[in-house]
Amino acid sequence: MGAFHAYDIRGIYNVDFDKDTVYKVGAFLPSLLGADKVLVGRDCRVSSDEIHEYLLRGITDAGADVYDIGLSTTPMVYFGTARYGFKASVQITASHNPKEYNGLKVSCENALPVGYDNGLGRIEAWIREDRELPLAEDKGNVYEKDIRQDYLDFLLGYKSDLSGLKLAFDLSNGMSSLFAKQIFGDAPAYIFDEMDGTFPNHEPNPLVHDNVVALEELVRKTGADVGVIYDGDADRVMFVDEKGHFISPDLIIALLGHYFIGERGEKGMVIQDIRSSKAVGEYLVPMGAEMYTWKVGRANAARKLREIDGVWGGELAGHYYFRDFFYSDSGLLASILVLRELASMKKKGLTMSELIDGIAKYRNSGEINFRLEDKQGAMDALREHFISRETPVAMMDFDGYRVEFPDWWFNIRPSNTEPYLRFICEASSDELLESRINEVKELLVSRFGAKV
Asked: Which one is catalytic: 47, 48, 89, 95?
């Protein structure tokens, strides 16, 4: 069983997990979360139907009722969980992974994420030790529950007049196809807008540049003001400016300040992950925000945003979290708010690239993966190497290390599932950035046998 991870259950179906695993997860879930009813949704992957069948069988055999919302985005499941008071929910999805993958995203009351540390690890242990399943004499029932219109109405409540914008969308053959045209209409240019769980055009992961090339070309071809691309389950969104250039997702955290602080006057805490550009805080703090840097991943960010009662937040991976949305992430809501602000800025003569240029101040490496075994040793060595020569202005030691110096910073963090270290660095100039990247590569290759 290699499918139990920090944030969810995910892997290659019938390799890392199978229908027997799914059935057992379903059977253990009600007692784990103290739930007598479970909300369930699914994406359009080829294997989702079989997983759906065995998940429902496990839940109902344990005596709990299933409220099945059918094909759905992952945020729609979060919405249904919190809005209708479910103590447990599951979305069947592998998010941005290739077609052969699938998985289960589990949430508890208030749509809070259930990760390895607060539930999934126990289920994995129970399965490994072959614990007797908590089956009930009286089986639960399956009820169909249609929440699409409620969710759509919620989203439309944030939409403004976008008629002045020329828009381009790549729906990645994924779950955003359920709502995009109902929200944004037929006027935008759309590509890959039919749900297809084989993802015939590109993998549904906008963080891989090859998957965004078609949208970049569409933006240039149509003269769009902005391009929008969602991942497979529509919990993430990313943007391309009017020149066809990909926008680093962390910078969108700063742009959202124009809505929450500029329009609504809602100053407060804003979450960013440990990989975020310093430019985000430098842009938002003068507007009245207070930045809170935290660990990567929904299992961390959504819980922390609720804990600190933050207004919004985001991650380098394109997740954006909102207090308005039960402290959860929604790619569609994020795109509605970004386009709302872009429409307003266009009336003032500003383009998307000009908006982003007003935020971005630094040169960034993007995330670089180093394959090596001694992850902790390498992280410690890298930290000591630099702080022995230069006095840091800030240090963080959660989710790896983030070490900040006056004119550059780096974050080095371990992968939760693979023998990789993930490195990112930012500097005030191209020359300094290149110098530090080369220095890191030389150290990790020579001392730890790292492969890039």
From this structure: 95
